[in-house]
Design brief:
With 290 residues, the chain is α+β, with helices and mostly antiparallel strands. The chain has seven helices and twelve strands.
Length: 290
């Protein structure tokens, strides 16, 4: 994750990487209505880009390259600025240009990463000198995934996701080569967690863990998601049968399917086969975990 840096025009730029969950286990429902989870998150080479510049009028103005996304007070980016204002007792007039590359409703954490990037950028721009744990505590007030993005390494996350323990550098295996496919529809994380309790395993779909260099790859949210969207369960089975695919699972709450590839796998051929089978309007990205 890159730190913001000013250019000659006073604009600070920062990357906001996507994430995926190598495993996601749901341990039960909490008294506050959230689910207790344990998950290992890793960043991806895919990233949004943000450009920030101070404004003299004291306003927070967000502009986004994706016109379908709200840019007002409901956006996590704006919420992040307001949360930092409350935490520091300061006001931040700032213009933010958000260049989206991470699809919405994909289980890749784009909105949370954007919010974390703004916290990191303002921390440097305003010389606040807040530590990563302190920024993570600010982020946790507005989104469960935000704290992960305030660290520069894979993390194990617990609670509702806000309790973050970075994986020691010596324990992290090499990065994985991955293939992502998101169909034309998205899935809200709140819906997937809400449906988990009453969902049932669907016959014909595999929910079992898969071996990987990081440990067992598994996602408990596949159960409610595959029940509602059986095409995603079929896609998992189909990906697992492709040459060069080591493992496949739902990314976070979906709707993106993640395939872990062998180093010599033909990603171009897999892309062609995927688009031919599931339609040209799907989104595909091939790259590596960070």
């Amino acid at each position: 994750m890159s730190e913001p840096s000013p250019d000659q025009g006073g604009i600070h730029e920062i990357a906001a990487p996507a994430k995926t969950n190598l495993w996601l286990r749901i341990l039960g429902k909490r008294e506050d209505g959230y689910h207790e989870i344990e998950t290992r998150m890793v960043a991806l080479g895919l990233a949004d880009r943000l450009r920030l510049q101070w404004r003299d009028d004291g306003q927070v103005v967000l502009r986004c390259s994706d016109p379908s996304l709200p840019t007002g007070g409901d956006n996590l980016v704006v919420k992040a600025v307001r949360a930092l204002e409350r935490h520091t007792g300061r006001s931040f007039g700032v213009g933010i240009d958000l260049e989206k590359h991470i699809p919405h409703g994909a289980g890749l954490g784009g909105g949370s990463s954007d919010a974390a990037a703004v916290l990191r950028a303002l921390n440097e721009m305003a010389s606040l000198h807040l530590s990563a744990p302190e920024l993570a505590a600010v982020g946790a007030m507005i989104g469960s995934d935000i704290p992960f993005f305030l660290y520069d390494r894979p993390c194990d996350c617990r609670g509702r996701g806000e309790i973050v323990e970075p994986v020691p550098a010596g324990e992290a295996p090499p990065s994985l080569r991955v293939f992502l496919h998101k169909p034309a529809f998205g899935i809200a994380a709140s819906w997937a967690y809400r449906r988990y309790a009453e969902s049932r395993e669907c016959v014909g779909f595999s929910y079992s863990g898969q071996p990987g260099p990081w440990g067992e790859l598994i996602n408990d949210l596949e159960r409610p998601v595959f029940e509602k969207f059986p095409v995603l369960g079929e896609m998992k089975s189909w990906l697992l049968a492709r040459p060069g695919v080591c493992a496949a699972l739902l990314s976070g709450s979906g709707s993106t399917m993640l395939a872990v590839l062998e180093e010599g796998a033909d990603a171009d051929e897999l892309t062609r086969e995927t688009l031919a089978r599931y339609g040209e309007n799907g989104w595909i990205w091939t790259g590596r975990t960070a």
